[in-house]
């Protein structure tokens, strides 16, 4: 969550928010269409619908790739799995409005400038970089090897990077097939960071049963750089409830 009005993805973590917090969300940025990134969007909208309508709130703006929007409409907001909130209470005054985005676009969302970054996943996907007074907050989204991502963020003053590492190295083949990172591929990806850049790196999207092993494997490779000129990174685990001021 960026400030209290912009939500990046809408997985099960949205359930940690109170109704008041959900009602303050006016913008949702989706990285892609997979269930663990959109599961709570229909439930959150339903939970605060009456409150938003009574307050005369603007439609919730859902920004995503067109293919992600198409998937949401076909498989979730289809009046079979869930009501189509883009036409409720009417098409002119809906609870939700979907806005297509493209890679490279800089969004103006809730007073924030947020750039859409490339991602490499099994479905079309993106990451995001939000400009702050101390640099950019960068979120990789679900991705595997992604040279275009590093090329772009090496051009930005990065304050903090959040990057996925879903699998341990013992599941590296599965990680490759599902286009997720494992510690070994993460090490190769971090080698692409410009040597003049130094910023904290937070690991997210770890499989719950493997989090301890994943973080141990990451600590191990970071203690043993691949090249003589490699440096240790400031790598930490992102956990629910953490708050950052940038």
Automatic annotation (TrEMBL):
Residues 6-201 form the Metallo-beta-lactamase domain. GO terms for molecular function: 3',5'-cyclic-AMP phosphodiesterase activity; 3',5'-cyclic-GMP phosphodiesterase activity. It holds the Pfam family Lactamase_B_2. One of its GO terms (biological process) is negative regulation of glucose mediated signaling pathway. SUPFAM superfamilies: Metallo-hydrolase/oxidoreductase (SSF56281). This is 3',5'-cyclic-nucleotide phosphodiesterase. It comes from Hydrogenophaga taeniospiralis CCUG 15921. The lineage of its organism: Bacteria, Pseudomonadati, Pseudomonadota, Betaproteobacteria, Burkholderiales.
């Amino acid at each position: 969550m960026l400030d209290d009005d912009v939500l990046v993805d809408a997985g099960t973590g949205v359930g940690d928010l109170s109704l008041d917090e959900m009602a303050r969300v006016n913008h949702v940025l989706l990285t892609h269409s997979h269930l663990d990134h959109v599961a709570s969007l229909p439930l959150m909208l339903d939970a605060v619908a009456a409150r938003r309508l009574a307050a005369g709130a603007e439609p919730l703006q859902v920004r995503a790739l067109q293919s992600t929007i198409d998937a949401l409409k076909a498989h979730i907001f289809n009046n079979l799995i869930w009501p189509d909130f883009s036409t409720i209470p009417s098409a002119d005054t809906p609870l939700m409005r979907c806005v297509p985005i493209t890679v490279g676009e800089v969004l103006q969302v809730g007073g924030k400038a947020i750039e859409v970054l490339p991602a490499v996943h099994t479905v079309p996907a993106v990451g995001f970089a939000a400009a702050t007074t101390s640099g950019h907050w960068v979120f990789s989204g679900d991705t595997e090897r992604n040279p275009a991502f590093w090329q772009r963020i090496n051009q930005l003053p990065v304050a903090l990077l959040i990057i996925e590492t879903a699998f341990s190295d013992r599941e590296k083949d599965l990680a490759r097939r599902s286009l997720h990172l494992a510690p070994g591929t993460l090490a190769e990806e971090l080698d692409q960071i410009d040597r003049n850049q130094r910023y904290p790196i937070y690991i997210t999207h770890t499989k719950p049963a493997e989090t301890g092993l994943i973080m141990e494997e990451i600590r191990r490779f970071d203690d043993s750089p691949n090249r003589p000129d490699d440096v240790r990174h400031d790598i930490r685990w992102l956990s629910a409830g953490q708050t950052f001021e940038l």
